[in-house]
Amino acid sequence: MAFITISKVYTADPADFWTPKNAFMLTDPFAIVMNVQADSSLVDKGLLFDALFQIVGPEQDTANGFPWWVIVNGDIFLSPSRDVHWNGVSFQWGTDFGIWWFWNQYYDAIAHVGNAKQGIFYVQGTISVEGSDLFAASDRFWFKVRA
Amino acid sequence: MPHPRSGRVRTHAVELWRILALIQEGDGMSQTRKRSPIDEKLTLRQVRARVGEIKSVKPIEGKGSGSAVRSGKDSKPGAGKVQR
């Protein structure tokens, strides 16, 4: 039975992708890392996967909280996650590997998102194997940003 | 004839003015980027009240060549084998 799992998700300093880091200044380099374990049959068959990295603002209370928002054409929209898609990736690193997405500073990732500049947020992600029923979803990893 | 202490007072006033200007520039966070309403923590009611002064902000996104989709300024994907 083929399988795929995301054993860990975390934020990190791009200078050291293998060490989780959970507190950043707004202008600190920032990365989302997912550790992935896959059955060797997926590698052997040459399958591809689609990865989704998400930064999530957990506050949803529109009356009392500070939910994430964006402005599009003058209208305000709630936008509780910043999503990055990396599609059509091959299993070129074997059965036990990490994938990441990084920015030179956290600010660059959420420059357009209100209420995302300081606070306690989390990252999560999914992996979907193309052309199959297989997928994996990560846990959450919380981190703090200060301005 | 100026009061002997007035020059010092004026110097302090100028320094205070500079400090205030720096704070308004960006909270001391970045002297090159002005702090905008979108950088502040705002309730939705405050956002709606100020929406006229907040310019429409488009997500920073763009696609690159190859399989690596770029999204965000200076954002990059990458991967490697897990180090045990």
CATH architecture of chain A: Sandwich
Q: What is the number of E strands of chain B?
A: 1
What is the radius of gyration of chain B computed over CA atoms, rounded to a whole number of angstroms? 23 Å
Oligomer: heterodimer
Distance between the termini of chain B: 76 Å
Helix fraction bin of chain A: under 10%
Question: How would you sum up this structure, described in words?
Answer:
The complex is a heterodimer of chains A (147) and B (84). Chain A has a single domain (4-146), classed as Immunoglobulin-like (Sandwich), CATH 2.60.40.10. Chain A has two helices and eleven strands. Chain A has helices at 40-44, 106-110; strands at residues 4-12, 23-25, 30-38, 48-56, 69-72, 75-78, 81-90, 96-103, 119-129, 135-137, 141-146. In chain A, a hairpin with a 5-residue loop joins strand 9 (119-129) and strand 10 (135-137). The longest helix of chain A is centred in the N-terminal third of the chain and has 5 residues, at 40-44. Chain A starts with a strand and ends with a strand. In chain A, 39% of the residues are buried. Chain B contains two helices and one strand. The relative contact order of chain B is 0.07. The chains are: A mainly beta (147), B mainly alpha (84). The A-B interface holds A 17-18, 26-27, 35, 62, 64-67, 69-74, 76, 84-89, 92-94, 96-105, 108-109, 111-115, 117-119, 147 and B 27, 29-30, 37-44, 47-48, 51, 54-60, 67-69, 71-83. Strand 8 of chain A pairs antiparallel with strand 1 of chain B, so a sheet runs across the interface.
